[in-house]
Design a protein that fits this description.
The chain has 189 residues and is mainly α. It is 72% helix and 0% strand.
Length: 189
């Protein structure tokens, strides 16, 4: 007789997989390790996530939801001017990479591991980056319609934030990047 899954089995599997994937990469974690760590049977795992690709997709979707909530919570609100919203978004990114447990952007990490066209995780990761970039583009265009380079300069800073996260002086670099973004946003071109 098949065991009945506990109501939180799916979430426990996803949380465990997320911790392992984030710490060691998707390639470095096998399904058996997840089964052993969660303490469930193989059939139970595969009932919740028929393939590793399904589990990876859920992991990336969960990260997207977490980031969207975090970024929205950091926003001064839709009534704030575009400059304040843009500065708050960059500051939220800076705060995020400041976290002592930060090990890189899960989407950028995934893209570094998997570059195959058509890979569902790759597509989710690229969609996240495109949407984040579109958010920056829209706010920059609202703030300074005549300065198409503003979004580009802010995006370079954002990429620098994520790239600097593993650096020994990351706290100083991240703080400087957030200040630079604010200066660029506040400057008059």
């Amino acid at each position: 007789m098949a065991r009945t899954a506990a109501p939180n089995t799916r979430q426990r599997v996803l949380e465990t997989a997320a911790e392992l994937f984030y710490a060691r990469g998707v390639r470095g974690v096998g399904m058996q390790e997840i089964i052993d760590t969660v303490g469930i049977g193989k059939n139970l795992l595969y009932r919740e996530f028929p393939t590793k690709a399904d589990l990876v997709q859920a992991y990336l979707e969960q990260n997207r939801e977490i980031w969207d909530r975090y970024a929205n919570a950091a926003s001064p609100g839709p009534d704030a001017d575009a400059a304040a919203q843009l500065a708050a978004l960059v500051q939220a990114m800076a705060n995020h990479v400041h976290d002592r447990l930060y090990r890189g952007c899960p989407f950028r990490n995934y893209l570094a591991e998997f570059g195959d066209e058509g890979d569902p995780g790759r597509e989710l990761s690229l969609a996240y980056l495109r949407d984040t970039r579109a958010r920056i583009d829209a706010l920059a265009a609202q703030h300074r319609p005549g300065d198409p380079g503003l979004a580009e300069r802010i995006w370079v800073i954002v990429e620098g934030l994520y790239g600097a996260a593993g650096h020994p002086d990351s706290a100083r670099i991240v703080d400087a990047a957030a200040c630079l973004a604010k200066e660029i946003i506040d400057s008059h071109v």
